[in-house]
Amino acid sequence: MGVTKDWNKAGFFSGITEDYSNYHWYKGEKENPYKGDTFHPLAASFWEYEKEFHYSYLDACDTKKPLDEVYKEWKEQLLSEHLPGKSPNPEGDTTNWKKSFETGKREV
Fold first, then answer.
1. 1 within domain boundaries
2. I want to staple 87 with a disulfide (CB 3.0 to 4.6 A). Which of 7, 63, 93, 106 is the partner?
3. Predicted confidence (pLDDT) per residue in 38-63, tens digit
């Protein structure tokens, strides 16, 4: 096992590079840049979800699975189970969450 050459680079934390390339909304900002964004009203929430995911991944004991793979699984669960379950509509949620996640707006 070789010693990494990245250990002293900015953003290198506990052996895990701060890689935000997999994320759509969260890019490592300290403050949510989408608060009050009327063009992308859902973006602030999606940014928060991705930020929470990022920190939970960094805190994980087992990081043998690559970030992109874990993120893909997390995002699928978020879009297919978590977000539809938050809908107050008794007739069911007609939101296309996959498309909404990409645009930051409610899409049907």
1. no
2. 93
3. 999 999 999 999 999 998 888 877 76
- What is the C-alpha separation between 59 and 80, in angstroms, rounded? 24
Structure tokens at 27: 């890019």
Q: Are 71 and 53 in contact (CB under 8 A)?
A: yes
Asked if residue 17 belongs to a domain, the reply is: no
Rounded Cα distance, 34 and 43, in Å: 6
Q: What is the pTM of this model?
A: 0.75
Residue 42 CA to residue 34 CA, distance in Å, equals: 9
d(CA 1, CA 15): 13
Task: Say if residue 26 is exposed, middle or buried (CB neighbours under 10 Å; 0-12, 13-18, 19+).
Answer: buried
Q: Which two tokens stand for residue 49?
A: 């979800």
Residue type at 95 in one-letter notation = T
Half-sphere exposure of 101 (CA within 13 A, CB side): 19
Cβ count within 10 A of residue 14: 7
Structural domain contains residue 98: yes
Residue 15 inside a domain? The answer is no
